[in-house]
Amino acid sequence: MTGSAPVPARVFEGRRTWRLTPDAFTAAARLIAGAEAAHRPQAVVGIARGGTQLAEWVAAHLSVPAVVIGARHNTTDAPRASASGRVRLDAVPEAALAVLGRGRRLLVVDDVVGSGATLRAVLADLAARVAPVGVRTAVLCRNAGTRFAPDTWGWEVADWVVFPWEAPPPSAEPLPALTRLHHRTGPPVRDI
Could you read off the pLDDT of 156-165 as tens digits, one per residue? Predict the structure, then answer.
């Protein structure tokens, strides 16, 4: 587990709950795989639970292995739940580390970046354990309140998002069609 730290503000306007449909997920995964192919990742790391399906989809389309790392920042899956300020990383099996290898190019994916704490914890763990030569990050959704900018993301959101692998809420609006990705234009944000 990483230490407790102040959690940067996430934005939840409370106007709606968004729903990512299976078709929208596939379209976004296709765009992410296409954009990240140019960076030639040698493995895709998914942050469980939300990044698992994205990692498997992108890895299959890039013909590279997928490894899933368990990490949790929210204390519950309840809508608009506060982040704890602590990220719990599950133990990564040696077999998974062997798949990643040392000194390789990795793509780390997740469903959403809220504060950036989970991605930052996973990136630090990977740096210490497999010393990748390069790491890029991609997420389906980025909360509008975060200062953390992944390399690639789909939707910028200011309300809660329910993903296809989660129980659907009584009412939710589908996210608008994704026609282009967002890309970080400067150096990675380190002050999360």
Answer: 999 989 999 9
Pairing of strands 152-157, 182-183: antiparallel
Q: Buried (b) or exposed (e) across 55-84, using 16+ Cβ within 10 A?
A: bbbbbebbebbbbbbebbbeeeeeeeeebe
Each residue's pLDDT tens digit, 102-129: 999 999 999 999 888 899 999 999 999 9
How far apart are alpha carbons 114 and 132 in whole angstroms? 24
- Per the listing, tokens 């497999």 go with 130
pTM, full prediction: 0.87
In order of 2, 19, 111, 169, the CA distances from 153 in angstroms are 25, 16, 9, 24
